[in-house]
Design goal:
By secondary structure, this protein is of the alpha/beta class. It has helices spanning about 15-25, 35-50, 55-60, 70-80, 110-135, 150-155, 160-175, 195-205, 210-220, 235-240, and strands spanning about 5-10, 30-35, 60-65, 90-95, 140-150, 185-190, 195, 205, 230, 245. Helix content is about 45%, strand content about 20%. The structure holds NADP nicotinamide-adenine-dinucleotide phosphate. NADP nicotinamide-adenine-dinucleotide phosphate (NAP) binds near residues 35 and 164.
Length: about 250
């Protein structure tokens, strides 16, 4: 049987590193976006904090792309279609970063745009570029996952909150539109702070390699976890999945 591949968009960050680890742990190969060569080096350095195996490194293909630009991920998919990069059956979108604490009335236009562009738009572009490919491939057990933050419900930091709110809406539309397709869509709703392993230990937060288990479980869950918001609100939630439906009856 051919090993399946997970396309991880935003692979070099805290959640991306965890996604790569989770995909490898679940037995998948990885196609990972990197911004440039130094960001690729950062990914391998982050991973080596828990796993220094050459075998695992060989299971990762990196591709340089600007995930924030409208056509960045689309161009990667074109290369996949031409056979220049490995075919993929799964996607995990985890682009993000800006986290300004500025109160709502003081959020200037530049700050608003930065949060919406990097935290929201890039993940929307990733969705728009990869879903047609997955639908066309018709692989029976494809998945599409995204990590959102509970800041979107808390609203303590206005700009990140608004960008997460937009992602929540993207997720409900995606869950609805993909309901009867070959693509099992899920939102991973995170209310804990996750960082790459060394920095997590320093800051007393959750290690990327620990959070990786959530993605392993999502990949392995099968049809019972489709169109869900997977809730990660406590460390217990990392050990076993807990979820609610994204799409209601209304
Ligand atoms: N970490 C958490 O605890 C946590 C909790 C809840 C929700 N989330 C959500 O998860 C998502 C990712 O968070 P994170 O902590 O993993 O963020 P991060 O460590 O800052 O990583 C974000 C990823 O996006 C890429 N990126 C950011 N700005 C970019 C730009 N201008 N151009 C190209 N690539 C860019 C980064 O590339 P480089 O590595 O090259 O910078 C990296 O791959 C966010 O939407 C966040 O809200 C995270």
């Amino acid at each position: 049987m051919t090993t399946e591949t997970v396309f991880i968009i935003g692979a070099t960050g805290n959640i991306g590193t965890s996604a790569v680890q989770g995909a490898l742990n679940a037995g998948y190969n990885v196609l990972a976006t990197v911004r440039n060569a130094s960001s690729a080096a950062k990914l391998f350095k982050n991973l080596s904090q828990t796993d220094d195996s050459d075998v695992n490194k060989q299971r990762i293909t990196t591709v340089e792309v600007d995930c924030v630009s409208e056509n960045g991920v689309k161009d990667v998919v074109k290369k996949v279609e031409k056979g220049e990069l490995p075919a993929f059956q799964h996607v995990y979108a985890c682009v993000g970063g800006p986290y300004s604490p500025t109160p709502l009335l003081q959020v200037d236009t530049k700050t608003l745009h930065e949060h919406m562009t990097i935290n929201f738009e890039s993940n929307f572009f990733a969705y728009r570029a990869t879903i047609p490919y997955l639908l066309t491939q018709s692989h029976a057990t494809s998945t599409w996952s995204i990590c959102t933050g509970s800041q979107g419900s808390l609203g303590i930091f206005a700009a990140p909150a608004m960008s997460q709110g937009a992602l929540f809406s993207l997720c409900v539309s995606a869950a609805r539109e993909l309901q009867d397709t070959n693509v099992r869509f899920n939102e991973i709703y995170l209310a804990l702070r996750v960082e790459t392993d060394r920095s997590a230990v320093e800051h007393g937060v959750v290690r990327a390699s620990e959070f990786a288990n959530v993605y392993v479980e999502v990949l392995r869950a099968g049809e019972r976890v489709r169109g869900k918001r997977v809730l990660v609100e406590t460390r217990e939630d990392i050990k076993g999945l807990r979820w609610v439906d994204k799409v209601g009856d209304a």
